[in-house]
Specification:
Blueprint lengths: L4 E6 L2 E6 L10 H14 L7 E6 L10 H6 L10 H11 L4 E5 L2 E3 L1 H4 L6 E5 L3 E3 L13 H9 L1 H8 L5 E2 H7 L4 E3 L4 H14 L2 H12 L2 H20 L2 H16 L1
Parallel strand pairs: 2-3, 3-4, 4-6, 5-7, 6-9
Antiparallel strand pairs: 1-2, 7-8
Length: 253
């Protein structure tokens, strides 16, 4: 458990919020574990009907805490590290899952959204997946899901080039489902949650499962493929050089 992930029950609503605003909600290994445990435990709780993911402070998340992650690099054959437990929990989740995003949503801050049923984004939000910049490969089955949503060329723009994009573009290709005016994200999210909770519970649960269908098997298979490449990349000279350059640029900033 970590104080950097807030858990709050509001009746049938489980609110999970990244709570490390002083570091732009950069996600640590402990935070991955807390999120994975919370989402997994919710599956067996009949009193929980909807889960929301949010971020405290000015950003949804600046992505992975690279310094923390590099200290906890997975060993060969490891499949139970916290970040991958979270990704599997998202892929197999059977409760309506809503993300409310604002500011910056970097790396996993964007890829986790592919596993949400609904995404509410505040105007001005920027999405970015800078994996190749860091010598890495995509995660969270984004190499499978994003081309299906946006088409191969746009997926290449975001994954190969790592170009950022805004709310309008994200809504156009289907990542964002609801937009919120600046300063009105909480109210917009609350309205979406209230509408969802007003629907008959079993019909809502069954519809969510039907929408996901059997695709989670294919998604998990792609995650395993990506994770294998990701693990190999972590020990490469390219990654060491890219991450070193990243930290040097932050020191100069």
């Amino acid at each position: 458990m970590t104080d950097h992930v807030l858990h709050e029950r509001r009746g049938a609503h489980l609110r999970l919020s990244l709570n490390r605003p002083e570091r732009r909600n950069a996600i640590t290994v402990a935070m991955y574990a807390a999120l994975a445990d919370a989402i997994t435990a919710a599956q067996d709780n009949p009193d929980i009907r909807v889960i929301t993911l949010e971020g405290e402070g000015v950003d949804f998340t600046g992505g992975n805490d690279l310094a923390d992650f590099m200290k906890e690099m997975p060993q060969d054959g490891q499949t139970d590290i916290p970040v991958w437990r979270l990704l599997r929990a998202l892929a197999t989740n059977q409760l309506p899952l809503i993300a409310a995003v604002h500011g910056n949503a970097v790396g996993i801050g964007t890829t986790m959204l592919f596993h949400c049923d609904l995404v509410v984004a505040e105007e001005g939000t920027r999405f970015k997946m800078p994996f190749t910049e860091l010598g890495l490969v995509p995660e969270a089955a984004s190499s499978l899901i994003l081309p299906r949503l946006a088409g191969r060329q746009l997926a290449a723009k975001y994954l190969l080039l790592g170009e950022s994009f805004g709310v309008e573009e994200a809504e156009r290709f289907g990542l964002v489902t609801h937009r919120a005016a600046s300063g009105e994200l909480a109210e917009r999210l609350e309205a979406v949650v209230a509408t969802l909770l007003s629907r008959p519970p079993e019909a809502t649960r069954l519809t969510q499962r039907l929408l996901r269908g059997t695709s989670h098997d294919e998604v998990l298979e792609r995650m395993d493929l990506e994770n294998g490449h990701f693990s190999e990349r972590l020990t490469s000279d390219e990654v060491r050089a890219a991450i070193s350059a990243f930290f040097m640029s932050r020191q100069r900033a």
